[in-house]
């Protein structure tokens, strides 16, 4: 029997990355400040996790200016949505196997 842990996405195993993806899968977009406040993380911590998700093309980044202030918004990509769904399915399989 295949180990269901093998199907977990290594990128999404970190708590902060999973929280970012959870927020983005249920909302159209989030800006950096809103994510930082919601997740209660530091700028550097959030930036490093965002970078990891962006590297995998799980999220897209849109940088604009609002009233002369930089504003960075993040959206989940189709690849990210699929990866998130597969990760949740794998978690569910792990739980079912433990019963």
UniProtKB/TrEMBL annotation:
InterPro entries tied to this protein: ArsR-like_HTH, WH-like_DNA-bd_sf, WH_DNA-bd_dom, WH_DNA-bd_sf
Pfam family, one: HTH_34
GO BP of this protein: regulation of DNA-templated transcription
Residue ranges of coiled coil: none
Residue ranges annotated for the Winged helix DNA-binding domain, each copy included: 16-95
Stated name of the protein: Transcriptional regulator
